[in-house]
Amino acid sequence: EDQVTQSPEALRLQEGESSSLNCSYTVSGLRGLFWYRQDPGKGPEFLFTLYSAGEEKEKERLKATLTKKESFLHITAPKPEDSATYLCAVQAGSSASKIIFGSGTRLSIRP
Amino acid sequence: EAGVAQSPRYKIIEKRQSVAFWCNPISGHATLYWYQQILGQGPKLLIQFQNNGVVDDSQLPKDRFSAERLKGVDSTLKIQPAKLEDSAVYLCASSLFDPRSDTQYFGPGTRLTVL
Protein backbone atom coordinates (compact mmCIF):
# COMPACT_ATOMS: atom_id res chain seq x y z
CA GLU A 1 0.00 0.00 0.00
CA ASP A 2 1.31 3.46 -0.93
CA GLN A 3 2.23 5.43 2.15
CA VAL A 4 3.74 8.82 3.07
CA THR A 5 5.11 9.55 6.56
CA GLN A 6 6.42 12.91 7.72
CA SER A 7 8.58 13.58 10.75
CA PRO A 8 8.72 15.23 13.15
CA GLU A 9 5.06 16.14 13.65
CA ALA A 10 6.11 19.46 15.15
CA LEU A 11 9.41 21.35 15.32
CA ARG A 12 10.28 24.50 17.23
CA LEU A 13 13.45 26.33 16.28
CA GLN A 14 15.15 29.53 17.24
CA GLU A 15 15.53 32.11 14.47
CA GLY A 16 18.69 31.27 12.53
CA GLU A 17 18.78 27.64 13.71
CA SER A 18 18.94 25.42 10.62
CA SER A 19 17.20 22.03 10.50
CA SER A 20 15.60 19.44 8.22
CA LEU A 21 12.13 17.96 7.80
CA ASN A 22 11.75 14.36 6.65
CA CYS A 23 9.27 12.72 4.27
CA SER A 24 9.60 8.96 3.85
CA TYR A 25 7.50 7.16 1.26
CA THR A 26 6.58 3.68 0.10
CA VAL A 27 5.19 3.71 -3.43
CA SER A 28 5.44 1.69 -6.61
CA GLY A 29 6.98 3.73 -9.38
CA LEU A 30 7.39 7.29 -8.16
CA ARG A 31 6.24 9.89 -10.70
CA GLY A 32 6.76 12.94 -8.54
CA LEU A 33 7.25 14.14 -4.96
CA PHE A 34 5.81 17.50 -3.96
CA TRP A 35 6.44 19.91 -1.09
CA TYR A 36 3.81 22.43 -0.05
CA ARG A 37 3.63 25.09 2.64
CA GLN A 38 0.32 25.69 4.42
CA ASP A 39 -0.42 28.71 6.60
CA PRO A 40 -3.34 28.63 9.06
CA GLY A 41 -6.66 29.19 7.31
CA LYS A 42 -5.18 28.94 3.83
CA GLY A 43 -4.78 26.33 1.13
CA PRO A 44 -1.42 24.63 0.52
CA GLU A 45 1.09 26.72 -1.45
CA PHE A 46 3.27 24.88 -3.95
CA LEU A 47 7.02 24.89 -3.24
CA PHE A 48 8.80 22.13 -5.20
CA THR A 49 8.36 19.09 -7.43
CA LEU A 50 11.12 16.44 -7.45
CA TYR A 51 11.10 13.65 -10.03
CA SER A 52 14.09 11.36 -9.46
CA ALA A 53 16.61 10.31 -6.82
CA GLY A 54 19.51 12.74 -6.53
CA GLU A 55 17.48 15.73 -7.63
CA GLU A 56 17.69 18.93 -5.58
CA LYS A 57 15.76 22.21 -5.76
CA GLU A 58 16.20 25.48 -3.86
CA LYS A 59 14.09 28.49 -3.11
CA GLU A 60 15.32 31.21 -0.76
CA ARG A 61 16.08 29.48 2.58
CA LEU A 62 14.56 26.15 1.52
CA LYS A 63 16.25 23.23 -0.23
CA ALA A 64 14.51 19.97 -1.12
CA THR A 65 16.37 16.74 -1.83
CA LEU A 66 15.18 13.30 -2.93
CA THR A 67 16.44 9.74 -2.48
CA LYS A 68 14.79 6.46 -3.43
CA LYS A 69 13.04 6.21 -0.07
CA GLU A 70 12.75 9.73 1.35
CA SER A 71 12.90 13.44 0.81
CA PHE A 72 14.30 16.16 3.02
CA LEU A 73 13.33 19.79 3.24
CA HIS A 74 16.31 21.69 4.60
CA ILE A 75 15.70 25.09 6.14
CA THR A 76 18.76 27.30 6.46
CA ALA A 77 18.81 30.20 8.93
CA PRO A 78 15.01 30.30 9.24
CA LYS A 79 13.04 33.44 10.05
CA PRO A 80 9.74 33.72 11.97
CA GLU A 81 7.88 34.10 8.66
CA ASP A 82 8.92 30.55 7.77
CA SER A 83 6.57 29.30 10.48
CA ALA A 84 3.92 27.11 8.81
CA THR A 85 2.93 23.50 8.23
CA TYR A 86 4.99 21.81 5.53
CA LEU A 87 3.24 19.05 3.59
CA CYS A 88 4.83 16.35 1.48
CA ALA A 89 2.91 14.43 -1.21
CA VAL A 90 3.77 11.69 -3.70
CA GLN A 91 2.30 10.60 -7.00
CA ALA A 92 3.05 7.10 -8.20
CA GLY A 93 2.11 4.61 -10.85
CA SER A 94 0.02 5.45 -13.90
CA SER A 95 -0.72 8.85 -15.35
CA ALA A 96 -4.11 8.81 -13.61
CA SER A 97 -2.72 7.91 -10.21
CA LYS A 98 -3.82 9.93 -7.25
CA ILE A 99 -1.56 12.04 -5.07
CA ILE A 100 -1.13 10.97 -1.44
CA PHE A 101 -0.31 13.54 1.23
CA GLY A 102 1.53 13.10 4.50
CA SER A 103 0.18 14.62 7.72
CA GLY A 104 2.65 17.48 7.68
CA THR A 105 5.27 19.00 9.98
CA ARG A 106 4.24 22.08 11.98
CA LEU A 107 7.27 24.37 12.04
CA SER A 108 7.50 27.22 14.53
CA ILE A 109 10.38 29.73 14.44
CA ARG A 110 10.92 31.83 17.57
CA PRO A 111 12.44 35.31 17.15
CA GLU B 1 -2.59 34.98 -13.18
CA ALA B 2 -5.70 34.43 -11.06
CA GLY B 3 -5.56 31.52 -8.65
CA VAL B 4 -8.12 28.87 -7.77
CA ALA B 5 -11.30 30.47 -6.42
CA GLN B 6 -13.60 28.84 -3.88
CA SER B 7 -16.81 29.87 -2.18
CA PRO B 8 -18.10 30.14 0.41
CA ARG B 9 -15.08 30.47 2.71
CA TYR B 10 -17.00 29.38 5.77
CA LYS B 11 -20.21 27.42 6.31
CA ILE B 12 -21.98 26.29 9.47
CA ILE B 13 -24.87 23.84 9.18
CA GLU B 14 -26.70 21.35 11.36
CA LYS B 15 -26.40 17.62 10.84
CA ARG B 16 -28.72 16.16 8.19
CA GLN B 17 -28.76 19.48 6.29
CA SER B 18 -27.36 19.88 2.79
CA VAL B 19 -24.45 22.06 1.66
CA ALA B 20 -22.72 22.87 -1.62
CA PHE B 21 -19.27 24.24 -2.39
CA TRP B 22 -18.12 25.92 -5.59
CA CYS B 23 -14.70 25.96 -7.27
CA ASN B 24 -13.32 27.85 -10.27
CA PRO B 25 -9.90 26.50 -11.33
CA ILE B 26 -6.99 28.34 -12.90
CA SER B 27 -7.77 29.14 -16.53
CA GLY B 28 -6.57 26.40 -18.86
CA HIS B 29 -6.15 23.76 -16.16
CA ALA B 30 -7.80 20.57 -17.37
CA THR B 31 -7.58 18.65 -14.10
CA LEU B 32 -9.57 19.56 -11.00
CA TYR B 33 -9.45 17.94 -7.57
CA TRP B 34 -11.54 18.08 -4.42
CA TYR B 35 -9.84 17.26 -1.11
CA GLN B 36 -11.07 16.93 2.45
CA GLN B 37 -8.66 18.11 5.15
CA ILE B 38 -9.50 17.28 8.75
CA LEU B 39 -7.74 19.35 11.41
CA GLY B 40 -4.19 18.12 11.98
CA GLN B 41 -4.15 15.86 8.92
CA GLY B 42 -3.00 16.12 5.35
CA PRO B 43 -5.52 16.57 2.53
CA LYS B 44 -7.37 13.43 1.40
CA LEU B 45 -8.46 13.21 -2.24
CA LEU B 46 -12.22 12.89 -2.70
CA ILE B 47 -12.55 13.17 -6.47
CA GLN B 48 -10.43 14.02 -9.51
CA PHE B 49 -11.80 15.32 -12.83
CA GLN B 50 -10.02 15.42 -16.17
CA ASN B 51 -12.05 17.96 -18.18
CA ASN B 52 -15.65 16.73 -17.72
CA GLY B 53 -14.84 13.15 -16.81
CA VAL B 54 -14.18 11.54 -13.43
CA VAL B 55 -10.69 10.01 -13.16
CA ASP B 56 -10.80 8.87 -9.52
CA ASP B 57 -13.63 8.94 -7.00
CA SER B 58 -12.61 5.88 -5.00
CA GLN B 59 -12.56 7.77 -1.68
CA LEU B 60 -15.76 9.75 -2.22
CA PRO B 61 -18.57 8.64 0.17
CA LYS B 62 -21.06 8.32 -2.65
CA ASP B 63 -24.07 7.77 -0.39
CA ARG B 64 -23.87 11.41 0.73
CA PHE B 65 -21.29 13.23 -1.42
CA SER B 66 -21.64 14.17 -5.08
CA ALA B 67 -19.61 16.34 -7.42
CA GLU B 68 -19.93 17.60 -10.96
CA ARG B 69 -17.87 19.61 -13.38
CA LEU B 70 -20.03 21.04 -16.11
CA LYS B 71 -18.35 22.20 -19.33
CA GLY B 72 -14.95 21.21 -17.94
CA VAL B 73 -14.46 24.41 -15.96
CA ASP B 74 -16.30 25.17 -12.69
CA SER B 75 -17.13 22.43 -10.23
CA THR B 76 -19.49 21.93 -7.31
CA LEU B 77 -19.21 19.49 -4.42
CA LYS B 78 -22.39 18.64 -2.49
CA ILE B 79 -23.01 16.89 0.80
CA GLN B 80 -26.50 15.59 1.53
CA PRO B 81 -27.18 14.84 4.34
CA ALA B 82 -24.24 16.12 6.38
CA LYS B 83 -22.84 14.26 9.39
CA LEU B 84 -20.80 15.57 12.30
CA GLU B 85 -17.68 13.85 10.95
CA ASP B 86 -17.91 15.92 7.74
CA SER B 87 -16.59 18.94 9.65
CA ALA B 88 -13.38 19.77 7.79
CA VAL B 89 -11.82 22.12 5.26
CA TYR B 90 -12.74 21.30 1.67
CA LEU B 91 -9.96 22.21 -0.72
CA CYS B 92 -10.15 22.54 -4.48
CA ALA B 93 -7.02 22.28 -6.60
CA SER B 94 -6.25 22.35 -10.31
CA SER B 95 -3.35 21.35 -12.53
CA LEU B 96 -2.22 21.44 -16.14
CA PHE B 97 -1.98 18.06 -17.78
CA ASP B 98 1.68 17.02 -17.52
CA PRO B 99 2.86 13.52 -18.51
CA ARG B 100 5.57 13.67 -15.82
CA SER B 101 3.40 14.47 -12.81
CA ASP B 102 0.60 16.76 -11.74
CA THR B 103 1.72 19.83 -9.80
CA GLN B 104 -1.44 21.08 -8.14
CA TYR B 105 -2.39 24.62 -7.18
CA PHE B 106 -4.85 24.99 -4.33
CA GLY B 107 -7.62 27.41 -3.49
CA PRO B 108 -8.14 28.88 -0.01
CA GLY B 109 -10.62 26.19 1.01
CA THR B 110 -14.10 26.16 2.56
CA ARG B 111 -14.26 25.50 6.29
CA LEU B 112 -17.37 23.44 7.07
CA THR B 113 -18.68 23.07 10.61
CA VAL B 114 -21.49 20.56 11.18
CA LEU B 115 -23.33 21.00 14.50
Protein described:
The complex is a heterodimer of chains A (111) and B (115). With 111 residues, chain A is mainly beta. Chain A has no helices and 11 strands. In chain A, strands 2, 4, 5, 9, 10 and 11 form a 6-stranded mixed sheet that branches. Chain A is globular. By secondary structure, chain B is mainly beta. Chain B is 0% helix and 48% strand. Chain B contains no helices and 11 strands. Chain B has strands at 5-7, 10-13, 19-24, 31-37, 44-50, 53-56, 65-68, 75-79, 88-95, 105-106, 110-114. Chain B is globular and about 40 Å long. The mean pLDDT of chain B is 93. The chains are: A mainly beta (111), B mainly beta (115). Chain A binds chain B through residues 4, 31-32, 34, 36, 41-46, 49, 51, 87, 89, 91, 95-96, 98-104, and chain B through 4, 33, 40-45, 48, 50, 55-56, 58, 91, 93, 99-109, 111.
What's the gyration radius of chain B in Å? 13 Å
Question: Can you count the beta strands of chain B?
Answer: 11
Helix count, DSSP H or I runs of 4 or more residues of chain A: 0
H and E order of chain A = EEEEEEEEEEE
- Shape designation of chain A: globular
Oligomer: heterodimer
Q: Beta fraction of the residues of chain B?
A: over 45%
Which bin fits the share of residues in helices of chain B?
under 10%
Largest sheet of chain A: 6 strands, mixed
Label the structural class of chain B.
Answer: mainly beta
What structural class is derived from the secondary structure elements of chain A?
Answer: mainly beta
